[in-house]
Amino acid sequence: MKLSLLEEAGATILTGKTRKMTNGHSVIEKTKSKTKTQLINELKKSLQRISELEKALAKCEQHEILLREIHHRARNNMQIISSLLRIQSKKTKEKELQDILRICQNRIRSMSLIHEKFSCSKDLAKIELAQYIHDLAIHLFHSHGVDPDIIKLNSGMEDIQIDINRAIPIGLIVNELITNSLRHAFPDGKKGEIQIKLHPINQGKFEFVVKDNGVGFPKDSGSCDSDSLGMQLVNCLVEQIDGNIELHREGGTQFKITF
Ligand SMILES: Nc1ncnc2c1ncn2[C@@H]1O[C@H](COP(=O)(O)OP(=O)(O)OP(=O)(O)O)[C@@H](O)[C@H]1O
Ligand SMILES: [Mg+2]
Asked: Do residues 150 and 213 touch, judged by C-beta distance below 8 A?
């Protein structure tokens, strides 16, 4: 009888590897016996599963595209706001007003840069914090027209992946602290250095330091009791990320944030 007829009649097919014996004969090592119908059913099931997975994957890819698009649009909108502020600032000759508008522009820029990083990130849920902080610092130096021979940037940061909930407050904190060092630490063309450090400490926590060797934080005010917006913003944002901030005044100004 033909094999297919035997199978249709319910006979089983031997499946398994062929093994050579020492006497030269070959035997089929019986591992599992299945009817052809059973095999076809299994094949059907696995094809169906592949098709389901393909559909799910297409959905995920669609989500990913949408999420990237959202970051892209958020970044574009922020850039438009920033450009509007730049145009407005050109309408005044008042230095103080121009400074205020530039500081606002940089606060917006620090957030738009985060959306830019997320839209290009391989992992849509996280960005590399060190790279982001470095790019932001370079932008701030540039925006304040700093001569890199007068104020040097010294950064030593380890790669840390961070999610969007923490990236935005951290970005704004970095923006305020570096801006303060650039604006207040080195008056009248004083030479100096700004150091930024980032590294993991224990229990999944990180330490971030911004230090300058400038004139020093005013003796009569602490980091937490400032009336001005900048330091109030920093304290609020540190709370938001469940962090802790310390001010050290030796040899300049140092802010150490753990989060
Ligand atoms: N790195 C620093 N070196 C020296 N002085 C500093 C430094 N950082 C802050 N200060 C002082 O602390 C004050 C408060 O800083 P804060 O950021 O709150 O306000 P601001 O920079 O004057 O204005 P803004 O609200 O726009 O940030 C500053 O005006 C400045 O005198
Ligand atoms: Mg400030």
From this structure: no
Q: Identify the domain containing residue 166 by its residue range.
A: 126-259
Query: Which residue from 176, 177, 181, 184 has its CB within 8 A of the most atoms of ligand 1, so it is best to mutate?
Result: 184
- What is the rounded distance in angstroms from the CA atom of residue 20 to the CA atom of residue 141? 75
Q: Cα–Cα distance between 118 and 112 in angstroms, integer?
A: 10
Q: Whose CA is nearest to atom 10 of ligand 1?
A: 217
Instruction: Give the CA angle between residues 172, 101, 177 to the nearest 5°.
Output: 30
pLDDT tier at 12 (50, 70, 90 boundaries)? Answer: very low
pLDDT tens for 102-113 read: 999 999 999 999
| CATH number of the domain within which 251 lies | 3.30.565.10
Best residue among 97, 228, 249, 254 to mutate for probing ligand 1's pocket (most ligand atoms within 8 Å of CB) is 228
C-beta neighbour count of 38 within 10 angstroms: 12
Is residue 108 in a domain?
no
Q: How many domains does the chain have?
A: 1
pLDDT at position 34, please? Answer: 79
Residue 18 exposure: Cα atoms within 13 Å on the Cβ side: 4
- Give domain status of residue 32, yes or no: no
